[in-house]
Amino acid sequence: MSYYSGTISVPWVPTRDELLEYIVRIARLKPSDVFYDLGCGDGRVVIRAVKEGIKKGVCVEINSSLIERAREAAEREGVLDRIVFMNEDFFRVPLSEATVVYMYLLTSVNRALRPKLETELRDGTRVITLDFEIPGWKPVQVVEIALPTRMAKLFLYIKGISDR
Fold it and tell me: By the 8 A CB rule, do 128 and 26 touch?
């Protein structure tokens, strides 16, 4: 399990490697970006974003063994010094520094996170979700990707536009 807090739990299902290029493309990453992955698992999405040249990545993961795997992977990839690892409940982590947020959670968790996103994110922050929408927000872009076993969907939201 990647995330558990009270009655909310999310199983860890890694983002497929073949989706990473689509995620960084839809995020429109810039060198000044601070990229947060809420429920980062083994860190693969943040590691890829950092390797694309962003300023800083933040891995937020409640499962201590997964955050350790993420740290080890970042060290292997030579990007350990550009990623902050937070073994913490993402409902308790301040998000105001983020310019990009990635979430591969469940619709119910996205719904529960929505007030936090609306309160803490600055206008213009890009929020990308895989497969599960943020109820009540309107995506500015939806990308469907054919995988060998299923269709994947990436949703791009922009704080200040999608939440109005």
Answer: yes
Look at strands 126-130 and 56-60 and give their pairing: unpaired
Hey, how many other C-beta atoms are within 10 angstroms of the C-beta on 145?
A: 16
Ordered DSSP codes for 112-151: HHHHHHHHHSPTT-EEEEES---TT---SEEEEEE-SSSE
**3.30.2350.10, 3.40.50.150, 3.40.1190.10, 1.10.10.10: CATH of 3-123:** 3.40.50.150
CA 116, chain centre distance (Å): 14
Alpha-carbon gap, residue 8 to 22, rounded angstroms: 28
pTM across the whole model: 0.93
- Tell me: pLDDT of 10 over 90: no
CB distance 100 to 128 below 8 Å: yes
Strand partners, 59: 37, 85
Model confidence pLDDT, tens digit, residues 86-104? 999 999 999 999 999 999 9
